[in-house]
Design a protein that fits this description.
single chain; alpha+beta; Metallo-beta-lactamase, Chain A; 6-stranded mixed beta sheet; binds zinc ion; hydrolase activity; hydrolase; EC 3.-.-.-
């Protein structure tokens, strides 16, 4: 007969919890190009206060169905493209502009991914908002000292002109002073270029005009050997609501009607043609595909790949 007794099991390790996430980078190949999605961190966004054309109860119920609150932890993503000839970063994260501990992780994650911020030849901005351009400089010092910054002329003229600040909605006003501060070292070094059209900026990388969220909001289309990735900037802020209902808008839009039109057009095109999409505020790494579903669309996140 076997007698069981409760014996204290000695804890050999007793390891303290680590509490940190893995470095925020994710690699994929696109034809001959290497794409690295980079996390700048996350920020809690009170979407039930910021979304338009959706009732609070509806927002809460869709979020709950996806095991999310109405103030979800929202990714801030940037994308590094190594074409073999150029190292090009699309968007620069928030830098220190979200305050301590929120965002600003991009430089560390660039290094964790095997690159140095100094190696970057160009930073292409989808638009000039804190969480996309804030990481260009910290305390007046360029984070990408050897890079030329590219941005659509309409965004440069809008955000870098202090006269517009007085006319802007109160929620947008802080962006002007912040834009001026982070652009200063690049302007001083004559390293800012604006563009007007959709011509290639580098072989395999071209801007697409997608105004609405801001006057010069831009997608970047990356193409290599017949494979395509569109980097969408701020097309999505609440993925569980805006794919099924692209008419749902966010308060940060400078022109909400145009932004809704742009989102519908982008989703319809991506679903019809099946190319890769990368977005700043879809859960990291924010890379996947779009398909039609019901009257709207659905996000199909990338399946894990070793990136070869
Ligand atoms: Zn954004």
């Amino acid at each position: 007969m076997l007698l069981w007794s409760v014996v204290a099991i000695p804890a050999h390790a007793g390891a303290p919890q680590v509490g940190a996430q893995a470095p925020g980078y994710y690699r994929m190949k696109l034809g001959k190009f290497e794409i690295t999605a980079l996390s700048d961190g996350t920020v809690n966004v009170p979407i039930s206060k910021l979304l338009k054309h959706a009732l609070h109860e509806h927002i809460a119920s869709v979020q709950a169905r996806n095991y999310q609150s109405t103030q979800p932890e929202t990714s801030v993503n940037a994308f590094l493209v190594n074409t073999g000839q150029h190292l090009v970063l699309v968007d620069a994260g928030a830098g220190s502009l979200f305050g301590p501990g929120v965002g600003g992780k991009l430089p560390d994650n660039i290094r964790a991914a095997g690159y140095q911020p100094e190696q970057i030849d160009a930073v292409l901005l989808t638009h000039i908002h804190v969480d996309h351009s804030g990481g260009l400089a910290v305390d007046g010092k360029a984070i990408f000292p050897n890079a030329v910054v590219y941005v659509d002329r309409r965004d440069a003229e809008f955000w870098l002109n202090p006269a517009n600040a007085a006319r802007a909605a109160s929620g947008q006003r802080h962006n002007f002073a912040q834009a001026e501060a982070v652009f200063a070292p690049y302007l001083k070094a004559d390293k800012v270029r604006s563009f007007d059209d959709e011509h290639e900026l580098f072989p395999g990388i071209r801007p697409l005009r997608m105004p609405g969220h801001t006057p010069g909001h831009t997608f970047y289309e990356i193409s290599s050997e017949g494979q395509r990735l569109q980097l969408w900037g701020d097309t999505i802020h609440a993925q569980h609501l805006q794919f099924p209902e692209p008419g749902v808008a966010i308060d940060f839009d400078v022109d909400s009607t145009a932004a809704v039109k742009m989102r519908k057009r982008a989703m319809a095109d991506a679903a019809a043609k099946g190319y890769w999409v990368g977005a700043a505020h879809i859960s990291f790494p924010g890379i996947g595909h779009v398909r039609r579903e019901g009257k709207g669309f659905a996000w199909v996140p990338a399946e894990y790949s070793m990136g070869r």
